[in-house]
Amino acid sequence: MLMDQLAALDDLATMLEECAATPGSCLWFAGDESSCHVRRVSV
Fold first, then answer.
1. With contact defined as beta carbons under 8 Å apart, do 15 and 38 qualify?
2. Distance of CA 20 to the CA centre of its chain
3. What CA–CA distances, in Å, run from 18 to 26, 30, 32, 39?
4. What is the C-alpha to C-alpha distance for residues 3 and 21, in angstroms, rounded to an integer?
């Protein structure tokens, strides 16, 4: 379980870095405490 959480945090860090480097993009979060889905959107 801990390794899954660490991998998810690493993925999130990558998405945040890409989002910050791409003007007009944002991250959408959907879910609850048991699951969360993140999608990067460029506008």
1. yes
2. 12
3. 10, 19, 24, 12
4. 27
- Give the distance, in angstroms, between the CA of residue 40 and the centroid of all CA atoms in the same chain: 7
Q: Could you report the per-residue pLDDT of 1-43, keeping only the tens digit for each?
A: 789 889 988 988 998 898 889 888 888 888 776 777 777 787 7
Provide the residue ranges of all domains of the chain, joining segments of one domain with +: 2-42
Kindly report whether the global pTM for this prediction surpasses the value 0.85.
Answer: no
Cβ distance 24 to 31 under 8 Å?
no
| CB atoms closer than 10 angstroms to residue 27 | 14
